[in-house]
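Sequence and fold
=================
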Amino acid sequence: MKHVRIVDVAQIITNRISCDRLSVSTYVSTENMQPNFGGVVNAIAMPSTAVTSFEQDDILISNIRPYFKKLWYARFDGGCSTDVICLRVTNANCLSKYLFYQLNANRFINTFVGSSKGTKMPRGDKQVLLSYDFCLPNLIEQQHIVDIIGSLDKKIELNQQIIEIADKFCRLEFKKALLLSKEKKFCEISGLSISNETYKSFTNKLYLDTSSINGQNVLWENCKSISSDIAPSRARMKPITNSIWFAKIKNSPKYLLIKDYMIDYLENLVLSTGFMGIKAKPELTNIYYYYFTSDEFYKLQGKVCNGVTMEGLSNSLLKVLIIPEFNSTAVTEFNKNCEEIIYNNYNLRDENKKLCELKFLYLKKFFDYKKFENTF
């Protein structure tokens, strides 16, 4: 086993590709890279000029605010913005996936984040990236590590695919119920209210702010254990049974559903005041969760948000907002078709949480510099 630097096994790619050859599914920017190694989604906007070309098996690293851990192992050819570093392995003695997992480890993340310069939008130092040193075992041992961690990634991805397919079904059922609804002010709908419950004091709670949610998935590794005597001023909201939470800030699609069986949420979390909390009757919780996570509400929220520095939705605005009121038959039908799916999706997310915890234990085992020599 030998020590090498990234520059010894890989290079930063600067080749260009015309934007005309790209689509929303093959263009990658810091905006559509997901935090905490969460992959990429389709781009919302396309570039008007040539961008950096990347190939399948390249490693893409967002160089804006590197603490978000936006790293992706490319599965296809495409193009990326100049704010994304494209790293390509050029040494036959190093597996691309092995290097990618090296860069997932805290040792690298902490090094790269520590090199960042800038206040508003800090960027990592590319020279620090290239000079980062690590241990390189033989190809058999590299493949062994890749197989172990990769098997966890594959299971996490499969679970996420099941969640997304099931979620699409529920959204179709929601659309059917929406057709039968009538409009009313939020404050006039029986069974809905704004949750204002807060903790007076607490000990060893996981602090969940809006940056610790990616869509509908909690980024548990970002949640820090805190107590009320040293908590941020925004760490106050108390999770309650049958509640729906979403980010108040405009253009921030982050959502959380809390049901009576989600004991880990109810007992372990303290939420940021950056969330809007809605308390619902048990029979209304599911269908209104799908409303507040729908495109219809996302667009409505974007239109009515106000504020000077950050546009957001206030309690007073929500109370007079015109939203659907679902009839009882549609609600019953929705719950009959979707209740079990929602429960199963929660269990799959919980399984993914445990798989991620195991993955990071393996990352620490294999890539902790001081322990690496004793790994095999």
Summary: The chain has three domains: 2-136, 137-171+331-376, 182-325. The mean pLDDT is 94. Residues 182-325 form a domain with the Adenine-n6-DNA-methyltransferase TaqI; Chain A, domain 2 fold (CATH 3.90.220.20). Residues 76 and 94 are 20 Å apart (CA to CA).
